[in-house]
Structures are given as structure tokens and as C-alpha cells.
Design goal:
The protein is of the alpha+beta class. Helices cover 28% and strands 27% of the residues. The strands form five sheets. It has a five-stranded mixed beta sheet. A five-stranded mixed beta sheet has the order 4-3-2-5-9. The protein is elongated and about 110 Å long.
């Protein structure tokens, strides 16, 4: 590329928008911040307003943060880059890191990647290079320099320059940042063009904070959580709470929430164990407080009876315990299909097995024989009875769920 032309170059500023709509502006709805990593490892954090850029101490939850450091990777080519290929490209940078991807709006051939641990927890992060790339997308002369000056034309607070090749693609390694006052903007542009071999147009457009604030409405941002079809799992669950397709959404996201479902099953198991323990305590209290019932229950081993019920109970089933003189019976009721309206996670099968298949093939508890299998008239449930072989007992019926 050629250097600056012989004619004295000028830097042209577009007229800022002054309509009533622009006066309200996106900055009232979302704070726009610049986070820049400067030479020497220092960091600059500033808020962009219509008057310029002023340093701030910290980000906010509603802030859009344009970040410039060496932790964003950019992949670009002529043909589209699908999600799986982009994941592989990011993994090659650091196999031990989990990356989040960000496609440039309007194209699938440019994608940015950043490690999840490097994404700020507060605010929404977007690469500054992506914002500059979108600013220059409408430039009729993509080849050459792209300049962003924040402040006033005579006294800018901050200047960013980046070079572009003949196809209009930016060169991330050429990004330069100046915090002013320093030299005047034209001197900086000429020096940058000469050192970087980027063409300085004779009448070059300088983008300002006004265009950047308008662009903020269109800028995407990294999601710390994994996204599915453009939305996080949390957003899908929130959107599905008010509609009748919750089950369909949960099925679409099943691969991403298996860990949550297993944790819920374990919680249900722990709650069931706690109910069994509480039932034992109540039985013991009744027997100890009522001598008549104590004599009636003398021939019953309540603990052994409850333990026998636990061996055939599975999450989602019902076991009924019946004890009468000379007879003890357990009835296992297993649903054949999930109950309408039940949370799909509550209908999860323990350890991935099939409830009906497991119930039909499991061995009866010790001291019991299995009776016939019965199916309800609506074919929604199956019942299996287990009869004690030789046991004399009297006690009230118990229901364990």
C-alpha cells in the first residue's frame, strides 16, 4: 500500500445526529465502557458519553464493555465457519480452557473467541475490534486506516487506529491506542500510516463517539453460560415457564442439563430416605407410648418390614405396606407413563433404567414371594404384590411414597 498522498490529508468528521430520538440515546439505557490494556500492563477503564470519555473505577451490571487486550481471538475467512469448527479452532488455542464464541452480526465467516474465565462477571463484554470492524463495514473505501476519535475534533480524549487490508478485513496486530493530550490527531494518523504501511486517504472519515454510541444498540456480547439456538439455558427455562411447551424445551435442552436432572434425582432420594427415617421414629414412638399396641406389634419386626419395602422402592414408584394377623404384604405400584403436569425431572428414572422393566425383573425381598402382576384399566400403572412366606403380624397399614 502507498503512504500518505502528497496533497495535505484532511480528517473529516461526520456530523453528529441531533434529532430528539438521538438526544435520548442508547447510553441512558445501557452504559458504554471502554476497557483498554495499555503498554506496560496498565489498564484504562472509561465511560463513553456524547461529550467524550472519562475514567471510571468499576463496571456495572448494565454496562456494555468494549474490551481491547490480547485475550480475544479472531478467526476470519471467505467461507462460513460453523459452530463445531469454531469450537475446534478455539480449543487449539488452549485445550484446558472453555471458550465462548461471538459471530460478527450479518456473517458466519468472522468469529471471535474468548475464554469463559476471562469474561467479566459484571456487565456484557464485546471485543473492541468487533465494534471497529462494524463501524467500518459501511465505508466505501475499506482499504487503509480506520480511525476512532473520542472527544472533540480539536481536543480528543482518546484515539484508536487500526489498519485494514485490501479486502477490508482489519489487522488486529496493528491496533494502536493513544490517550491524549499528546500530538495532534493528524500527526498521529500520518505517523501510524507510515510505520504500518497503511494508506491514509486524502479525505479520511474519522469515526467518533456519536457513531459508536449509535452502534452500541447492534453490538453482540459474550455469554458466560453456554447458549443453545442463541439463548442460554436459564433464558429458555424462563421463557418456557409461561407456555405449555415446557416439556418440549426441556427435551431440546436435555443434553445441556443432565447434571441438573441427576442432582434433582439425588435430592429426591435423600428426601425419601429422610421420610423413611421419620416414619421409623413415629412407629417406635407409638409402640413405646401405647402398651396395647406394643403387645400387638410384638410379633412384628417393623424395621425388617420397612427395609423390605425399601429394597423394591424406586424414585417415581409407590410401595404400600400392609400387616395383618398372620399376613404381611407389600404392593409396588409403578407408573407406565409420566403423570400429566409432572416436572420431567421428577419423572427421571433412577440410574437411567426403565421402571417397568426393573420392577418386573427385580428379585422379591427376603422372606417374600412375588404375586401376580396387575395393570390398571387405563394402562397408566402396574401393580406387583409381594406376600410374606411365614410371618405372624398385626399393625395398621402404612403408605410410603
Amino acid at each position: 500500500m502507498s503512504k500518505a498522498s502528497k496533497a495535505p490529508p484532511t480528517l473529516r468528521y461526520p456530523a453528529p445526529e441531533t434529532s430528539s430520538r438521538a438526544a435520548k440515546g442508547p447510553e441512558r439505557r445501557r452504559v458504554l465502557l471502554l476497557q483498554l490494556e495499555l503498554p506496560g500492563g496498565t489498564r484504562f477503564l472509561g465511560r463513553v458519553t456524547r461529550s467524550g470519555c472519562a475514567p471510571v473505577e468499576a463496571t456495572g451490571a448494565n454496562a456494555l464493555i468494549l474490551i481491547s487486550d490480547d485475550r480475544d481471538a479472531r478467526f476470519g475467512r471467505v467461507s462460513p465457519i460453523d459452530r463445531a469448527e469454531a469450537d475446534e479452532m478455539a480449543a487449539d488455542l488452549n485445550p484446558d480452557a472453555v471458550f465462548r464464541l461471538l459471530y460478527r452480526p450479518g456473517t458466519k465467516s468472522v468469529v471471535y473467541a474468548r475464554a469463559r474465565d476471562e469474561i467479566p462477571e459484571q456487565g456484557r463484554a464485546c471485543p473492541l475490534l468487533l465494534a471497529l470492524e462494524m463501524l467500518g463495514a459501511a465505508d466505501e473505501r475499506p482499504q487503509g486506516m480506520l480511525i476512532l476519535a473520542i472527544g472533540t475534533p480539536t481536543n480528543p480524549d482518546l484515539v484508536l487506529m487500526v489498519g485494514r487490508d485490501i479486502s477490508g478485513a482489519i489487522d488486529p496486530a496493528s491496533l494502536q491506542v493513544w490517550l491524549l493530550p499528546q500530538d495532534d490527531l493528524l500527526t498521529l494518523a500520518v505517523d501510524f500510516a507510515e510505520r504500518g504501511q497503511f494508506e491514509l486517504q486524502a479525505d479520511h472519515i474519522v469515526y467518533t463517539q456519536h457513531e459508536l454510541l449509535q452502534l452500541a444498540r447492534q453490538l453482540p456480547h459474550y455469554e458466560r453460560a453456554r447458549t443453545y439456538f442463541g439463548r442460554t439455558v436459564e433464558n429458555w427455562m424462563r421463557a418456557g415457564a409461561g407456555i405449555g411447551a415446557v416439556a418440549g424445551v426441556a427435551t431440546a435442552l436435555a443434553c445441556g442439563v443432565q447434571a441438573l436432572a441427576l442432582a434433582h434425582v439425588e435430592q429426591q432420594r435423600a428426601q425419601a430416605d429422610a421420610r423413611v427415617a421419620a416414619m421409623r421414629d413415629r412407629l417406635q414412638a407409638v409402640v413405646q407410648q401405647d402398651p396395647i399396641r406394643l403387645s400387638m406389634a410384638a410379633s412384628i419386626d417393623q424395621r425388617q418390614l420397612v427395609d423390605a419395602a425399601r429394597t423394591i422402592w424406586r424414585n417415581g414408584t409407590t410401595v404400600r405396606i400392609e400387616a395383618r394377623p398372620g399376613q404381611e404384604r407389600l404392593t409396588l405400584r409403578t407408573p407406565i407413563s409420566a403423570a400429566p403436569g409432572r416436572d420431567p425431572a421428577e419423572s427421571a428414572v433412577d440410574e437411567g433404567g426403565d421402571l417397568v422393566h426393573e420392577a418386573m425383573n427385580q428379585q422379591p425381598p427376603r422372606g417374600f414371594t412375588r404375586g401376580p402382576i396387575q395393570v390398571s384399566g387405563d394402562f397408566n400403572a402396574m401393580a406387583i404384590t409381594y406376600q410374606s412366606e411365614s410371618r405372624r403380624s398385626t399393625a395398621a397399614g402404612l403408605l410410603m411414597r
